[in-house]
Amino acid sequence: MIRTTELEQFTYFRGRVALFAILRALGVGPGDQVITQAFTCLAVPEAIMARGAQPVYADVEPAGFNMDASDLRRKLTARTRAVIIQHTYGIPADLDGLLAVVGQAGLPLIEDCCHTIASTYHGILVGRHGVAAFYSYEWGKPVVVGIGGSAVIHDPSLREAVRAQYGSFLYPGSWFHVRLRAQQLVHQLAYRPFLYYVARWLYHRLGSVGAAQSNYNPIDPGHAARDFSLRMAMPLQGRLHKQLAHVDELTRHSPDIAEAYAERIQSPVVAHVPVGEGRDVVYARYPLLAADKPRLLAAARRANVELAEWYTTPIHPVPASDWQRVGYEAGSCPQAEMRCRQVVTLPVHATVGSADVERTIQFFNECK
Ligand SMILES: *Cc1c(COP(=O)(O)O)cnc(C)c1O
Q1: Could you report the per-residue pLDDT of 336-365, keeping only the tens digit for each?
Q2: Distance, CA 149 to ligand 1 centroid (Å)?
Q3: Which residue has the higher pLDDT, 146 or 264?
Q4: Which atom of ligand 1 is nearest to the CA of 138?
Q5: C-alpha distances in angstroms, 195 versus 138, 187, 297?
Q6: What pTM, to 2 d.p., does this model score?
Q7: What pLDDT, in 10s, does the model give residues 117-144?
Q8: How far, in Å, is the centroid of ligand 1 from the Cα of 141?
Q9: Helices 174-190 and 196-208 meet at what angle, rounded to 10?
Q10: Atom of ligand 1 nearest to the CA of 40
């Protein structure tokens, strides 16, 4: 098996900038459509719109979190120029089905690997199935360097184009390092499950006074934010290479924790989600479908059990009042909208200890 880490990584300011660079090298621009899934984060349409192109949303599978191949087929038009698929929470998408549709249409497939670096589909790592893949290394992702992303390009002529354009991406200025330091401090707190709610509050406070790098740029179609002209800061590149050399260690604990959740959470208030055959999943977070999500979130908070709610909207965190600005039409992806009302996720990261796992399992099994 070839590890993604053995391949040439083009590093950028963020994951979305890596996607932007791939789209740019593909020649995607004004008048073009790029299909992505609903039940994603704003970073993805942000990159598409920064190219001046139009995001088009395909729904997710019934009871799943990844793109539905038959809905993808329905969303194709003469203006479709590329398809971005996502391996949500680390669960590999239906690659056979999606590759068949994309191949028939003669379009390039880009894999969004921001939630996983180590899951496999029929024995082959995700991120190795399309013309290119992109990764994010910000807080909350499987490999963390701070803020940053990378692209791995498999198509030789596309790789040439990405390489030729790479020189135009600049290093971020000194303001960036100050903000990064503030975020690092909060992150160190957040990665202790019992401090999750405290850290989350602090992070939002920092964001509101401008000390933390805001996660999203203002929605402004046709105008690319400055982020999209930047590459990864030099010290972070060094940190990334070190981390990727130990990627097995970084992801080793995840399957054990996920297995404990999968086997031992047996509660009427949540349902597990089957992942489909041929998939070996290294979760970023472990998802459950809640019968009553608001009630469960409130109970978890009272019990100080780390439970995240993303995604809460089909293009997270865009509220329904702004969906039109990101090209999403209400009701157009009913499965994605339903998943937003159901999903809660549990942590599987390295600092989740066995006591946290036991406490979490007990919380669910005593929940009524
Ligand atoms: C985090 C994330 C991104 C973008 O990452 P940034 O580094 O924040 O730009 C893209 N897609 C998905 C699914 C993500 O979770």
Answers
A1: 999 999 999 999 988 899 999 999 999 999
A2: 8
A3: 264
A4: 7
A5: 19, 10, 16
A6: 0.93
A7: 899 999 999 999 999 999 999 887 888 8
A8: 8
A9: 160
A10: 13
